[in-house]
Amino acid sequence: MPFDPTGEYTASSTDPSTWGDFAGAFRTYFLGDCGIDGIGFVLREDGDFVGIDLDHCVSDGKISTWALKIIFELESYSEFSPSGSGVRIFLSGKLPFGGRKRGSIEMYESGRYLTVTGQQYQKSPRTIKYRQDAIEALHKRVFTEAPRPERSEKNLRLELNDSDLLKKAIAARNGIKIKALYDGSISSYPSRSEADLALCSGLAFYTSDPAQLDRLFRSSGLFRDKWDQRHHGDGRTYGEGTISKALGQRR
Hints:
The chain has helices at 22-31, 65-74, 132-143, 153-159, 162-171, 175-182, 192-204, 210-218, 238-250; strands spanning 39-43, 49-54, 58-59, 62-63, 78-80, 87-92, 101-102, 105-108, 112-116, 129-130. The chain has 251 residues and is of the alpha+beta class. It folds into 3 domains: 1-37, no CATH class; 44-106 and 114-143, no CATH class; 153-250, no CATH class. It is globular and about 50 Å long. The chain starts with 21 loop residues before the first helix and ends with a helix.
C-alpha cells in the first residue's frame, strides 16, 4: 500500500495531491519511524518516463537469458525489484497504443506507482536513457503477433492480439463509443461503474478471454485503483466481477 511522502496518509497513483518529491519521500523513509518499507516513483500521464517490469526472471541472483536480452536491447537504468526475483527498467519515451501486460512483461507510462530499490544491475547504464525506437521494437514484439493465414471470421475473436482487437473494435460501427470509453470518457453514462461495464462488454464481442479483457481495461483511461479492490463475497475483485458480467452478457 503506497503512502504519501509524510508517511501518514495512503496515496494513490492517480491522485497528484498524494504525491511529493524525492527529498521528502527519502527523508521520511530514512529518518522517520512510520514503518515504511521503501520509496517509489509515480508514472504520470504528462511525464516522459516508461517503466518496464520483468517478473520472475531472477533466480539465485542470476538473470534469465530472455530478460538479459531485453535489458541489453533497451540499454537504460535497470535495477532489481524489492523481492529480488524481478528486474525493473526505467526509460524515457512513449509507449505505442495497445497492450501493457503479457506474461512476465509489463510496460507502463502512466497511472502506476513503481517501487524502487537503487539496487542497480551493474551492467546497465547508471542513468535513464531516451530509447523510443527500442521501446517500440519491444512493444511490437511482445504485443503484436504475426498474422495467421486464412483466418475465418468465426475464429477471429479467439485469435486477435490486444492491439489488433482494439483497432478492430474502434473501427466497428459503435467504435466511436468504444474509443471514447477507452480514452476515459464517461460523459454518456450515469456512473463510472456503468461505463466500466460498457467498455468491457464492447470489447467482449471480440474475445472471451478474461485475461485479455483485464489487460485491455488496465491500459484504458478508465482504469483506477478500484479495479483491484475486492467487492464481492466470493473474493472476486471489482474488475473480475465486471469482466464476468460482460462475458455473461455476450452469451
